[in-house]
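User: tokens in, sequence out, please.
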């Protein structure tokens, strides 16, 4: 694109922004702080959610949340005490039956088959707005308040993953941050650690592995449930392996050993947000970490084993695992099985509406260009271009 075209494109974007943003709504469409992170505190829950929901446009063009801000947030979240929930005397009464209805409905939405979840985004937004309204304007006991805060944290986490899968990283961050505050208010340390782990996963996805490692280190000081600690250690192993170096390799092996122990210790009493962690995840994430450390043969075995162990209900994860398997075959210079795995992943991702999985396959395509006549490669490239 030439200089003139770039300039015209910029003017068009500014014009579009002027049409979307209302001057009389300022400053509601601006972040509350320079880096978009509301400081953790007893009154931060609604302002933090406002950063996620109360927006007139996609603000990715305005700011991104810095790694330093996320690290400070993680430190505060790991060290701060839970907020005392008092009996509220003002506002409309919130009944236990209504809270139970909200909890059951959100569990049902979260339990839908992967292919159906792509249709639930608007519903989840509406449920979260309802729960937030009850927390702000309702009258409820401390016990009901804790349930509402826990429900808001879970909804924020689910919505954040929807945004993340669509590549809307700023909105995903803001929902994870809002969820962290709700978990903090409910005194749910494991869920707070899980939300920090999600922010770390996003940082690693965007290539900021030092920030991801710092966040995960803070999160591990709070998590107590073995399944939660397993997931956090697996993510730590992955992000350390991506940084390379001998010292990191030793830390990777320690994290993988800790994850395996925690998974063996985990029983059926697990938080809902990490109830899915299984031998399949341990195998594939261990394989990916070893792949980055150069142990290609063992990595390929683990990735293949993990994909085989994955239950049918987790199609999106299967799509991610298939791309990992394709990458491991390419590392072994075996383009035919790599193309088969990548093709299956791409078809699955398009069927269930998972743009993040599509992006993973697209990132692999340049590596197939060295094998233009290998079986399956022309068909994969044609499918990707369609």
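Assistant: Sequence out:
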């Amino acid at each position: 694109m030439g200089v003139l075209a770039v300039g015209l494109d910029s003017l068009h974007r500014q014009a579009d922004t002027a049409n979307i943003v209302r001057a009389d709504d300022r400053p509601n469409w601006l972040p509350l702080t320079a880096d978009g992170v509301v400081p953790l505190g007893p009154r931060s829950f609604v302002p933090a959610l406002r950063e996620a929901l109360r927006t007139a446009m996609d603000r990715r063009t305005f700011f991104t949340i810095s790694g330093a801000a996320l690290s400070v947030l993680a430190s505060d979240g790991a060290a701060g005490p839970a907020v005392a929930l008092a009996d509220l005397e003002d506002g409309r009464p919130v009944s236990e039956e209504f809270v139970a209805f909200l909890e059951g409905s959100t569990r049902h939405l979260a339990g839908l088959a992967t292919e159906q979840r792509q249709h639930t985004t608007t519903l989840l937004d509406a449920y979260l707005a309802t729960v937030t309204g009850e927390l702000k304007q309702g009258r409820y006991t401390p016990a009901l308040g804790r349930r509402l805060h826990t429900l808001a944290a879970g909804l924020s986490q689910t919505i954040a993953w929807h945004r993340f899968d669509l590549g809307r990283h700023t909105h995903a961050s803001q929902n994870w941050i809002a969820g962290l505050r709700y978990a903090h208010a409910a005194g749910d340390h494991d869920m707070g650690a899980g939300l920090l782990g999600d922010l770390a996963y996003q940082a690693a996805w965007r290539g900021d592995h030092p920030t991801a490692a710092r966040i995960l280190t803070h999160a591990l000081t709070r998590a107590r449930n073995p399944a939660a600690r397993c997931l956090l250690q697996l993510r730590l192993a992955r992000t350390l392996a991506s940084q390379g170096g001998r010292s990191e390799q030793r830390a990777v092996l320690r994290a993988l050993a800790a994850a395996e122990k925690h998974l063996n210790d985990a029983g059926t009493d697990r938080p809902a947000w990490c109830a899915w962690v299984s031998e399949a995840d341990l195998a594939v994430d261990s394989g990916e970490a070893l792949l980055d450390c150069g142990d290609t043969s063992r990595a390929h075995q683990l990735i293949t084993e993990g994909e085989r162990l994955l239950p049918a209900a987790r199609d999106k994860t299967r799509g991610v695992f298939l791309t990992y398997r394709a990458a491991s075959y390419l590392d072994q210079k075996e383009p035919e099985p790599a193309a088969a795995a990548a093709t299956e992943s791409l078809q699955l991702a398009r069927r269930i509406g998972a743009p993040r999985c599509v992006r993973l396959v697209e990132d692999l395509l340049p590596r197939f260009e060295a094998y233009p006549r290998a079986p399956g490669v022309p068909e994969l490239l044609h499918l990707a271009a369609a």
